[in-house]
Amino acid sequence: MSQLHKQCKWIVNTTNSEFVSYVSRIAGLSHACAQVLINRGIKTPEQINFFKGAATSSLSDPFAIEGISSSVQRIKRAIKDKDKILVSGDYDADGLTATAIMLEGLKRMGAEASYFIPHRLRDGYGFGESSVSAAVSCGAKLIITVDSGITSFDALRGASRLGIDVIVTDHHEPMRNDKGLALLPEAYSIVNPKLMTEGAGLYNLQELAGAGVALKLVHALTEDEDFVNSLLDLVAIGTSADVVSVLGENRLLLNRGLRLIGNGNRPGIKALKDAAGINNGSFRNSMVYYSVNPRINAPGRIDDSRDVIRLLTTPSAHEASEIARWMCEMNAKRQRIEEKVFREALEQAEGLTVKDGAIVVASEGWHLGVVGIVASRLVEHFGIPACVFVLEGDIAKGSARGNGNFDLLEALKECEPLLERFGGHKQAAGLSLRADRLDAFRECINAAALKICEQTTPALSIDALVGLSDITHELVQEIESLEPFGHCNKEPLFGSRMLEVVDSRIVGNNHLRMNVRQKGRVVNCIAFDMGHMREYLSSGYIDALYLPTANKQYNSIQLQIKAFRSASEA
Known about the structure:
The chain is an alpha/beta fold. Helices cover 41% and strands 21% of the residues. Helix 12 (267-275) packs across helix 15 (317-350) and helix 13 packs across helix 15.
């Protein structure tokens, strides 16, 4: 969240005070945190107990997902017949962890299994002809896809013609006809929670990441709870990376997986933490997202990611250390490439005449492996959806990112006649089109965005308005109990009006530090990357949006300011 947002709406979520009191009572939380739960859709005693019991609740029955039973039978037959099995993964953190999970499960059952990870530039995304060729080369009679395959119609037909069975495990949206019915590819079996109509109640299995789906199949295959629990560090990484909901079963998976990551029992993850300079025992989802995941993703963005599987599965601390160092080098290289592309994309975007609905930029020479990150940074900068393309001859290949309230896939469907292919999620998609259609696509995606301009207008959703007297150490502890934070369970955002700015100064790399006072209570604040906004403090009073945190060094409370404005502008 950034800057002043003069044109940005500040929306306060409010609920009947009696209902807030009711949720507060049954959850054992303050009214402010009860409102946070309500805003996340957690309102009933059953939902609250499930949310609070993430550390101890049982995982859901894997056989609740259609296709699991037939898939287990086929895998067991392959193991009995000593047939080779190929796991076809993908080059991002979710696909890589899902591959490692599936390999570990097959190894546990005594299967003869190998893996194939496509190269981003040579093979493209997901399950394709290269995966089938790899199966032929190693003599595999069964392929298990992870985090891919639900829209791979041609590749699956090719495998079938060669007499190779394919089990598809995926979590992406299937293609659908005009009646909303899923169009499914030819496969031996398909395991995809997106095809479920009910979603298994509280567990909300439809929101599983690719790593989560792989775990459910391994759970059903091995029927070994302790072994399944040992894989939750891998699941947590994949779940964090793919920005899926962190409610439902994902909350259970993340909660336990983060503990395993903190313990550092897996040599590969411990080596990666050491190489990244992360030494603390406790581990938060944000640390996985910003420190671990970029290093796991980096090889697949600019090189070959096959060795990441070795890192995640090796029992050797020495081997893990060597691979982890290499991954950190790849990440540093990725950062340099990304920064160059971002600066050029930003300059191009600022020169566009049409940028009120969505950003569309393109250039030759940009690295395809970083365009998704660059698109995300453009969204953060402009507050609207962004598409970044690499021009390769007559074709433009790229990535698109939404701005939180905008259904990107729905917008792309309106532009489908212009596109060669596209797919992904509501907030992230990959796409390609003919280069001579870029201008037409820019007009189309802008029109689609403007048609729902209310959604594309940046808005800050405030969980509750509170006074500084409400910000206590007990409230901070309650907020910490709501972790892990992520998609659908964002860090709480509280707001306070008419805070007197006692003093302010710029510290570090453009950070703004200040003290604010209200009714005699003074609290310290930090506003990261907002040093340039010090001028807006001249009125003496501000309205501020923030996350209360604990400053353990001084045993005090600090407000992390996310946005503020002069109180006179309210």
